[in-house]
Amino acid sequence: MSMNYLVKRPEGEIRTSIQLPASKSISNRVLIMNALSDYTYDIVNLSDSDDTNVMVEALNSNGRDFDIKAAGTAMRFLTAFLSKIVGEWTITGTERMKNRPIALLVDALNSLGARIEYIEKEGFPPLRIFGSALQGGEITLSGGVSSQYISALLMVAPLMENGLNLHLEGKVVSVPYINLTIELMEQYGVKVEREGQTLKVIPQKYHSIPFTVESDWSAASYWYSIAALSPQSEIELLGLFENSLQGDAAVAKLFEPLGVETLFTGKGVLLKHRTNNCQLFEYNFVNEPDLAQTLVVTCTLMNIPFRFTGLQSLKIKETDRMEALKTELHKLGYLLSEREGSVLQWDGERCKPETNPIIATYEDHRMAMAFAPVSLIRKEGIEIAHPEVVSKSYPQFWDNLKTAGFIIKS
Questions:
Q1: 208, 42 in Cβ contact below 8 A?
Q2: 38 tagged catalytic
């Protein structure tokens, strides 16, 4: 059994400097590329998240059976990677992972010459993978699928005998993540050609390079929320790059209307609290779904009505994040509504809050971190269940809050 945390706001103004965790989306991609290359260099500043640790373990292990626990990226990237590595492999994860669909990726790989079978339920992990040479060829996928499927296929494409022609149909979601994969592949010496919505990769070789992983912009978002809710705050976040490859760097622009100014310092960024006069916040999160929880919670706490669209992928993340946000904010007295499975909005409607609300986290790291700033507006603080879930992407989160002056009691 884990204990809950009671999080209380700092006594004075927040003036702090925080070393953010390394980006796990970059770490997990360069791990695969490095493993597919001549492997000359080690990667500097790898993420210490659960998701990256299971990737490192899997890539370094001599075993044939992999348990990637709750790591969605690892499940998808390793499925494609192992289908190319000669041998017989099995890959499994948590109960939740066994209910996260993977048929699209498995069907795609099988049509390109892989041999992957389901061990339990059709269309879901665990998988048995018979790794061998992949023929490659031509394939069409809906652009609406998880970008991780597309990234997984792209990363093994240069090692397919005939390369890969990947046609994306309809509207493509999470474009920044696909761009991130392509840009990193190019740094590792592999060219991806684009013609409209077709991505073409001819057979070629990866070359290992000295590589330093930048800090994680998704992790920065919780500090932006804290800055927005704390007058006079000044927060330095180390290790962020101005011309970042990460789509979630959009958080700097997103928080401008909420009164947070971002200054790039060469070591990272400095966040300063400014006044805001935002009356209504409308935004399409199709390219930055991982920032949605932070913005939903921040806007309600600042009493700013919002209409957020492009949230369809939130239903298949670590939990159904739309449902989780509505349920937990209801405990705090906010009534949100959901439309068409992709829109979340709040028009200022309130209900009676619970006297002693406890925020449930649903095995979802982002629920715990997005709700921690509630402590800034509740005198009595906020209680958060299963606070250890943050280890998935930001293991030092609670320690960093203490550094900033927050009081945390078990």
A1: no
A2: no
User: pLDDT tens across 131-170, in order?
Assistant: 999 999 999 999 988 899 999 999 999 999 999 999 999 9
| CATH no., domain 24-212 | 3.65.10.10
CA 162 to CA 141: how far, in whole Å?
A: 18
CA 293 centroid distance within chain: 12
CA-nearest of 299, 302, 311 to 344 is 311
CATH number, span 5-21+214-409: 3.65.10.10
Domain 5-21+214-409 and domain 24-212, same fold? Reply is yes
Which two three-digit tokens encode residue 334? 């906010």
Q: Can you give the pTM of this predicted structure?
A: 0.81
Bridge pairing between strands 127-131 and 87-92 = antiparallel
Taking the domains of the chain in order of start, what are their residue ranges? 5-21+214-409, 24-212
Instruction: Give the CA dihedral 170, 171, 175, 178, nearest 10 degrees.
Output: -20
Instruction: Catalytic residue, from 216, 290, 347, 399: name it.
Output: 290
Q: Are 368 and 328 in contact (CB under 8 A)?
A: no
Q: Helix or strand or coil: residue 393?
A: coil
For residues 215 and 362, the answer to whether their CB atoms sit within 8 Å is no
For 172-187, how does the pLDDT look when each residue is reduced to its tens digit (9 = 90+)?
988 889 999 999 999 9
Residues 6+ apart with CB under 8 A from 372: 7, 222, 382, 384, 397, 401, 406
